[in-house]
Design a protein that fits this description.
The complex is a heterodimer. Chain A is mostly helical. Chain A has 14 helices and no strands. The two termini of chain A are 36 Å apart. Chain B is 36% helix and 21% strand. A 7-stranded mixed beta sheet of chain B has the order 6-7-8-3-9-10-11, sandwiched between helices. The longest helix of chain B has 25 residues. The two termini of chain B are 16 Å apart. Classes of the chains: A mainly alpha, B alpha/beta. The structure holds adenosine-5'-triphosphate (ATP) and magnesium ion.
Chain lengths: 333, 312
């Protein structure tokens, strides 16, 4: 193989995508069935035969799924099949199938790739439309979710990083706060929801609070860990140079702990994005999580899947952004 | 050291350091009854085995650690914490990996002269970067520098703040012999040019003979003692390439080896048998003149010779 690893992996990715698409298509494809042949009783058959219709013609016309009365009408015309065909078929006689099988409505079956593609195109081509309180473009709904995540996350960073510094630098503060952190950390963010809704009331602020709470712990713990584990040597260098504590914090401890802090921030943004979807499903109103819930209730699985796809893509972009930031502060010893 | 000697820059008096034992019940003494001085412009080396408390002692001199008892007097005042007058070259290079070579030095210069503008800081940094022959590597991060280059940045950082005293903790121990040699030469040149008062810890006997005016010998820990102070009998201006041709080189070297190999372990017996006075540890001047014959095993006779001199 002369291709680079990147090229080979891209080929494999595309191959997997195509195979997946075909499998999906094969599993969800429902051929649009033609009319269901009319079932005739022996009496009816006899009657048609007596009107001069051949057995072959009976089978042919019955396959259009037209009613017995209409079959009788055709038989009564006494015209040959070729003649009717030449005149434009039975439709030309004003006869049409009664028990036509209809195409399944979207949502009643798992959507096909084509349907998703259409829904995706609809979403992408007009992401910011507003057609009612519950019917807004995916871009707008995503905006709501991102705004909540950003506010909750930044508030958490504002609290977690200074507090983490204090915990990391002072064994006293560490020991004093450790029991609270240990108990509060494992609580599912959604378990805070009822408390938040009860105490805060406003559902908007409640979901921001839930984002705040779930983003807090990884940042707090990583900051404290990073700060506490700054190499003693570097602190000694600062000490022998009689560097003040603020300057030591900014020029030595912060850059030394930055990669660890960024790791915490990256974990936090991932959790926050997981939690916002769940929170919005619970609280409702706006946001991408609400869209998923709403489309599910409306049985628009195609649009629901597009929303889910968007959640994945945006989550990936958020993670990528923090990975970039982490690269900026990384250092090799 | 008599009264006509130059001003004493560092006086170490009755220094002792204990650490709690791992079980937290008792305490172990790392070293005790340590007394020695360093004169202005003098270069003193401390030799001792690993774990005898050399780094601990240097940290106390730097102000990073406090002694359990005893004092360190620098320039007439008892020390209280760290000071910009005492620069440290650490055992590991201790450079900040997120800063370039230049920024590492600038961090020190800015701390020493907070009022300086960027151009002044840069000029001072450049001067010391050039001095350790790192011109052209200013913007490299420590990870992009070789071990010897990193150590040079550490030395430049210590010199750049123009300290009264330079404290060095095995600055070259992690380097290969060739690099070590060239850095030693540079250090000799710089110290002589600036008349720098220096205190250096080392494992390397040749390094001590090359650099030191006097060598403090420390016995094995725990409860290490300064057992002897050796005055360098080789003339000033010695170089790495010519010092081994001097008649006093082997007496010096053998004396130090004898100490490291045998006496550092059995010194407790010497204390018991002799009238060892920790306040005035014996001063020895190994030279060919005292013991022309049988150079390899001179140390004991030398020691007694010197001690007799002292006693009289
Ligand atoms: N913070 C500490 N707590 C307890 N014991 C310590 C501490 N620091 C050093 N020691 C002990 O003191 C002794 C001397 O340590 P030190 O680092 O000063 O040795 P050293 O002579 O510098 O050794 P090396 O040549 O290997 O650098 C060791 O036995 C060490 O275990
Ligand atoms: Mg050491």
């Amino acid at each position: 193989m002369t291709l680079t690893l990147n090229a080979r992996s891209a080929v494999l990715s595309i191959a997997l995508f195509i195979v997946g698409l075909f499998a999906w298509h094969a599993m969800t494809y429902q051929p649009v069935t033609g009319p269901v042949a009319t079932v005739l009783s022996s009496d009816e058959l006899g009657e048609l035969t007596s009107l001069g219709m051949s057995d072959d013609d009976i089978t042919h016309y019955a396959s259009f799924g037209i009613a017995f009365e209409q079959l009788k009408q055709i038989a009564g015309l006494g015209l040959s099949r070729d003649l009717i065909e030449a005149a434009g078929g039975i439709q030309a006689l004003g006869i049409s199938a009664v028990n036509e099988a209809t195409e399944p409505a979207p949502g009643s079956l798992f959507p096909t790739p084509m349907q998703i593609g259409t829904a995706l195109w609809d979403a992408v081509s007009d992401p910011f439309y507003v057609a009612g309180t519950n019917d807004k473009g995916l871009g707008i709904q995503m905006g709501y979710s991102l705004a909540r995540v950003t506010i909750g996350y930044l508030l958490a960073a504002l609290v977690a990083i200074p507090l983490g510094f204090a915990i990391g630098m002072s064994p006293l503060v560490y020991k004093a706060l450790d029991p609270y952190i240990q108990v509060l950390k494992p609580i599912s963010p959604l378990a805070w929801m009822p408390i938040a809704l009860f105490t805060i009331g406003d559902s908007e602020i409640s979901s921001i609070f839930v984002i705040f709470i779930c983003s807090l712990w990884p940042m707090l713990i990583n900051t404290a860990f990073g700060v506490a584990n700054v190499r003693k040597e570097w602190l000694n260098v600062a000490k022998t140079l009689e560097v003040g504590s603020l300057r030591t914090a900014l020029r030595v401890i912060l850059p030394a702990a930055a990669p660890t802090i960024l790791t915490g921030m990256r974990i936090s943004i991932g959790i926050a994005w997981l939690v916002i979807v769940a929170a919005e499903m619970l609280v409702g109103g706006t946001g991408i999580g609400y869209v998923v819930w709403n489309e599910w209730n409306g049985l628009r699985l195609d649009r629901m899947i597009v929303a889910i796809l968007f959640i994945g893509v945006v989550g990936m972009l958020l993670d990528l952004a923090l990975a970039r930031a982490a690269k900026l502060v990384a250092y090799t010893e | 050291m008599d009264e006509t000697a130059p001003k004493k820059m560092i006086q170490v008096e009755g220094l002792e350091r204990r650490f709690p034992t791992p079980d937290g019940k008792g305490q172990t003494q790392v070293f005790g009854e340590v007394n020695f001085t360093v004169a202005e412009g003098e270069f003193v080396c401390l030799i001792g085995h690993s774990g005898c408390g050399k780094t601990t002692l240097l940290n106390i001199l730097a102000g990073l650690d406090v002694p359990t008892s005893g004092h360190v007097i620098v320039d007439g005042k008892e020390i209280d914490g760290t000071s910009l007058d005492r620069a440290v070259v650490f055992q590991g290079h201790a450079l900040m990996p997120w800063m370039s070579a230049m920024t590492n030095i600038a961090f020190a210069v800015e701390s020493r002269w907070p009022g300086w503008n960027a151009a002044q800081v840069r000029e001072q940094c450049q001067k010391y970067i050039d001095m350790v022959h790192l011109t052209g590597s200013e913007d490299k991060k420590p990870a992009q520098l070789s071990g010897g280059m990193k150590q040079r940045v550490g030395i430049a950082r210590a010199f750049s703040i123009e300290p009264k005293i330079l404290l060095m903790d095995e600055p070259f121990s992690a380097l290969d012999a060739l690099t070590r040699g060239s850095l030693q030469d540079e250090l000799v040149t710089i110290c002589q040019a600036t008349n720098q008062t220096s205190f250096m810890i080392t494992h390397d006997i040749d390094e001590a003979i090359l650099l030191a005016d006097r060598i403090v010998l420390m016995t094995n820990g725990p409860e290490a003692r300064v057992c002897e102070i050796v005055e360098n009998t080789l003339p000033k201006g010695r170089t790495r390439s010519d010092m081994h041709t001097h008649a006093n080189y082997y007496p010096m070297r053998n004396h130090l080896i004898e100490f490291l190999v045998n006496r550092s372990k059995t010194f407790a017996e010497e204390i018991a048998a002799d009238t060892f006075d920790p306040l005035n540890p014996p001063v020895v001047r190994p030279s060919a003149a005292v013991s022309e014959v049988g150079a390899p095993s001179v140390s004991t006779s030398e020691l007694s010779a010197t001690k007799e001199k002292r006693a009289s």
